[in-house]
Write a structure and sequence with these properties.
Blueprint: H1 9-12, E1 36-37, H2 41-46, E2 53-55, E3 62-64, E4 69-70, H3 74-89, H4 96-118, H5 132-150, E5 159-163, E6 171-181, E7 190-200, E8 206-210, H6 221-228, H7 238-254, H8 261-275, E9 277-281, E10 287-291
Antiparallel strand pairs: 1-4, 2-3, 5-8, 6-7, 7-8, 9-10
Helix pairs in contact: 4-5, 7-8
Length: 292
């Protein structure tokens, strides 16, 4: 990232009331009602998750899936709902670009809710706050993508891959964070965001989107081959799949950015925190993640 691409606080921290910002368009939604279920109701119903929880980075930080709603313009909500209905009816007939857009919507909505819950000091299971610039970056990314999808000009910027999977229950994995880039300027601070969204359903390929993987490393044949030849492609155990995805994210996208042991530890801790896994170093000195 060059200095001209610097991302600073003033650019991405929303100064308006985020509780009334439409998830799809960013415009103000009258009233305070949150009308969009971030995780579609059919997905919750199909997998009997009405009372299920979403882990927000650590075991003690939980939120009910049905609480994950966001403000939404009624027309935009209905329009995007038609795409989600197509995904429900036959995911195989939906384009990779639209599957990517759907996962980007899930990420934007989940970050919005994570921020909302983290800012509630009275919440008994509130998650730890993250760099709020990331929520602004992802919401801007989704709103721009949604606008282009509406006018027929959308194509994904990051990667979307479909990996073999044997998971026996719904898996929603959301790994996110930022790594700081030093521009050696006392008034500017650059950040490199990373966001991985994965959706695994029994009987379906594992969908994995990395929104800032501009080189589309996840889409390379070698990634698919390595995954398919590993037991992670057939295991029904969701924790092992989560750990494998966390390791792949770090290895492919983030390790090349590491410039010190301190930064490496900070990045790995951040991934482990978001993914609900733990990091370790194997006998050969390779740093990986495994289930808690």
């Amino acid at each position: 990232m060059s200095e001209s691409d610097e991302l600073n606080v003033s650019q991405y921290i929303h100064t308006d009331d985020v509780r009334r910002r439409c998830l799809f368009t960013g415009v103000d939604v009258p009233g305070t009602k949150r009308g969009e279920h971030v995780i579609p109701r059919w997905l919750v119903k199909d997998h009997a998750l009405q009372d299920g929880g979403v882990q927000l980075g650590q075991p003690e930080a939980l939120a009910r899936i049905l609480e994950f709603t966001a403000p939404a313009d009624a027309v935009a909500n209905q329009t995007f709902g038609a795409l989600e209905q197509r995904i429900k009816e036959n995911q195989a007939d939906v384009s990779d670009d639209e599957l990517y857009l759907w996962l980007l919507k899930l990420s934007s909505g989940m970050l919005w809710n994570h921020r909302r819950l983290a800012e509630n000091a009275q919440h008994p299971r509130a998650p730890v706050q993250f760099d709020v610039r990331l929520e602004g970056i992802v919401s801007n990314e989704f709103q721009d993508a949604y606008a282009k999808w509406m006018d027929g000009s959308f194509s994904r910027k990051g990667s979307l891959t479909k990996l073999p999977s044997g998971v026996d229950r719904l898996m929603i994995l959301h790994i996110f964070g930022v790594t700081l880039l030093d521009f050696e300027h006392e008034t500017h601070e650059g950040i490199f965001p990373y966001v991985l969204m994965a959706m695994g359903r029994p009987g379906h390929p594992l969908l994995v989107a990395s929104f800032f993987d501009t080189g589309r490393k996840w889409e390379e044949d070698i990634v698919y081959s390595a995954w398919a030849s590993n037991e992670v492609a057939t295991t029904p155990e969701v924790p092992f799949v989560r750990a494998a995805l966390a390791t792949a994210l770090y290895t492919m996208e983030l390790r090349p950015l590491v410039s010190s042991e301190e930064q490496e530890q900070r990045l790995m801790d951040g991934i482990a925190h978001a993914a609900g896994v733990r990091r370790f170093t194997d006998d050969e000195g390779v740093k990986r993640f495994r289930p808690r």
